[in-house]
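STRUCTURE:
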């Protein structure tokens, strides 16, 4: 798949325009990033018949995947995963097409690594959602969300949540379709490359 086509499919025309403006402004030493935190209250029971077959992944699984397809799965992604996969409370789940990983997502049940703080014991944080570019548009994002909701419920969690950058319209749409509601807006500002980021939370 053409890289430009994939980016447009993932972020939409408006999202791509936003990211272009963001890069230009950042070159001038100004950074402004907006995220929305989406939350969902889980039902008491989740019907396992609606789940597709999936696999709880290890670091070896990800390393093997890189040998199958190094174009979309590379060293940068491996390093991101290595930071969390073996830490307590973190798990990764993957959906396969034969031997090929086509979608994966992670869950944390005790630490919110996005804002670096301990979570409420009733919640689970969904993060690092990624779908193989050749399989986007097949509803896999919704399926990997459902898998992690089921795993969170098994561990006694009643609420799941995720952060989505405002430019990532495809991801936001996927969470909304799964019943998630945006409750918090996070804004990161930085004026001057050597100055610290300022973070602001706004309840919606």
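SEQUENCE:
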């Amino acid at each position: 798949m053409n890289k430009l086509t994939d980016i447009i499919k993932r972020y939409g025309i408006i999202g791509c325009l936003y990211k272009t403006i963001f890069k230009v402004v950042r070159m001038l030493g100004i950074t402004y990033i907006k995220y929305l935190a989406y939350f969902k209250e889980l039902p008491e029971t989740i019907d396992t018949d609606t789940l597709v077959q999936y696999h709880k992944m290890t670091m070896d699984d990800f390393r093997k995947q890189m040998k199958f397809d190094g174009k979309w799965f590379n060293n940068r992604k491996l390093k991101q995963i290595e930071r969390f996969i073996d830490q307590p409370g973190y798990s990764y789940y993957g959906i396969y097409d034969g031997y090929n990983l086509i979608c994966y997502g992670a869950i944390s049940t005790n630490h919110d690594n996005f804002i670096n703080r301990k979570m409420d014991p009733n919640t689970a944080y969904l993060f690092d959602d990624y779908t193989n570019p050749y399989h986007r548009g097949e509803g896999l994002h919704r399926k990997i969300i459902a898998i992690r909701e089921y795993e969170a419920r098994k561990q006694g969690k009643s609420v799941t949540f995720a952060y989505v950058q405002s430019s990532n319209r495809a991801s936001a749409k996927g969470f909304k379709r799964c019943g998630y509601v945006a409750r918090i807006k996070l804004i990161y500002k930085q004026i001057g490359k050597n100055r610290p980021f300022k973070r602001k939370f706004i309840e919606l």
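REMARK: The chain has one domain: 35-186.
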